[in-house]
Design a protein that fits this description.
It is a single chain. The protein has twelve helices and 24 strands. By secondary structure, the protein is an alpha/beta fold. The strands form six sheets. The chain has a four-stranded mixed β-sheet with strand order 22-23-1-24. Helix 3 links the parallel strand 6 and strand 7.
Length: 431
Amino acid sequence: MSLHVGPATDGLRGELRLPGDKSIAHRALLVGAVADGHTRLEGLPDGADVRSTLNAVEQLGVRVRRDGTRVEIEGAGLDFATETQVRIDCGNSGTTMRLLAGLLASRPGRFELTGDASLSRRPMERVAEPLRSMGAGVSTTDGHAPIQIEGGRLTPIDRQLAVPSAQVKTAILLAGLRTDGRTTVREPIRTRDHTERLLEYVGAAIHRDGAVVSIEGNRPLTGRRVPLPADVSAAAFFLVAGSIVPNSELSLLNVGLNETRTGVLRILERMGADIEVRGVWEEAGEPRGDLRVRAAPLHGVTIEAEEVPAAIDELPVLAMAAACADGETVVRGAGELRVKESDRLAAIAQLGELGATITIQPDGFRIVGGAGRPLPGGSVSSAGDHRIAMAFAVLALRTSGGIHIDGGDAMAVSFPGFVSEVERLGARVRR
């Protein structure tokens, strides 16, 4: 599907209740499957990625009932297993594949995890190798999907990760749930900690010290109510839109404010964004709050490698903010963008075709902004990547002629209602 998103000449105004946090949703579905008793998720997002994890849980024989954004799970307990071979299609979701690999590694049975063409290009040895070191039979296809898993009794490990990865960390912790002893993961840089928070919330024995996290195996988990906050990654698109489109004011309700995910807020505030946090509270182990953003002149900043993990998913839309800012923005240490749903650095480079000044580097980019002057617009490809499609849709709101986005249907992977929300707030979209 192709879209043409036009400029929002009158500004963006309104209140948004965004989809529930995708990262927490994946984890809650899998943890609920192995908890004892009843887990109720509220605010489940409707994107294709989360549906892949939901379908996987059902394929494993766990009882699940969905009613709109609410999901009820009858947990099968830590010892649930299947003796038959199960083939699970993870679609486009790397999170589903990597986390599921960790969960299944300790289950008696044989499993095959497959995915679409994009997922089959992403690196999977980074998760397979530590699981093998725990005793699981895990093989990849030239380092990629499909993944073959022969699960069984595992032994705990103490693992130093070479590359910071919340997905690999989570896979190891989930595998450690059924070991005798303590499994430890040491990260070079602290990554998002939704897994640790959720496991603590349902009764796991978790030990945390900065970028080191451990779990004690064979401790029962208890199903609980898990209300999801709005996804801060989804909020980022509207925080940037509200900042760069003149005469805009947006309110975003119940947004997740976990400090390992709010790098985008800190970076936008350094760029001069007018963002107000209106109250912070905590539910199910996760902080959240309401945000208000008003249009403001932005200026360029430098984003160093240590900031990248807390903003990795938001870097594409931050690149759009940089194109509208005054001065130079430099991003370093973001080579991981090359192995996401697309090569996101190559996709971001399309800014040059829209009139921006951009230089792509091996692990980042340099953008010289237009000091608030709108770019003329043009045509880009989403490369089948939901975040690239939405990022260019945000930039289109600040162009003089709009942007034609080839492959706009990729947005449905994480945010099926994105275009409708943009239209409701005052933008013009032609399908």
